[in-house]
Backbone:
């Protein structure tokens, strides 16, 4: 047929316009049920899968002189990385076992035997209520000071990261 002498034909089909829609996925009759897991791991479970592989992302690097009172303002105070060589650096240590917040984090950790002076390392800090008295001592080549009736603040304990 012609329309005013012009013959009209449909456009030829090419690969781009010959698209076939995929089949829709079948509708499920019910929702998938969660798997039941026992609360206690069996001996065959891989218990190492929960181990921390890298501690770098979860700690704060501190200097030898850094006091806990300076690092604990408005932040989580738990894991720190101390550099090697803090034995020869300034930084007061007050107490034994429980350290005053004015104490150097790294030097308190060496005093407690949690890290070694030569290698430095990671340690966990647990803030605790202040003590009425802090007893000084000489441990691991560091002398800590005694203090009675400190004003304000809290105390802290140091632990090795295993």
Residues:
């Amino acid at each position: 047929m012609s329309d005013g002498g012009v013959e009209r034909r449909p456009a030829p089909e090419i690969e781009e316009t010959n698209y076939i829609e995929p089949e829709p996925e079948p509708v499920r009759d019910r929702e998938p049920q969660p798997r039941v897991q026992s609360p206690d791991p069996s001996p065959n479970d891989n218990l190492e899968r929960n181990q921390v592989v890298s501690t770098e992302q979860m700690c704060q690097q501190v200097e030898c002189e850094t006091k806990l009172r300076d690092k604990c303002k408005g932040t989580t105070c738990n894991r720190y990385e101390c550099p090697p060589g803090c034995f020869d650096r300034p930084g007061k240590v007050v107490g034994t076992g429980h350290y005053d917040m004015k104490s150097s984090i790294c030097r308190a950790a060496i005093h407690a035997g949690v890290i070694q002076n030569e290698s430095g390392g990671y340690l966990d800090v647990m803030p605790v209520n202040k003590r009425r008295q802090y007893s000084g001592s000489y441990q691991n080549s560091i002398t800590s000071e005694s203090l009675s009736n400190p004003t304000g603040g809290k105390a802290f304990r140091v632990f090795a990261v295993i």
Observations:
- The radius of gyration is 33 Å.
- The chain has a mean pLDDT of 76.
- The chain has two helices and twelve strands.
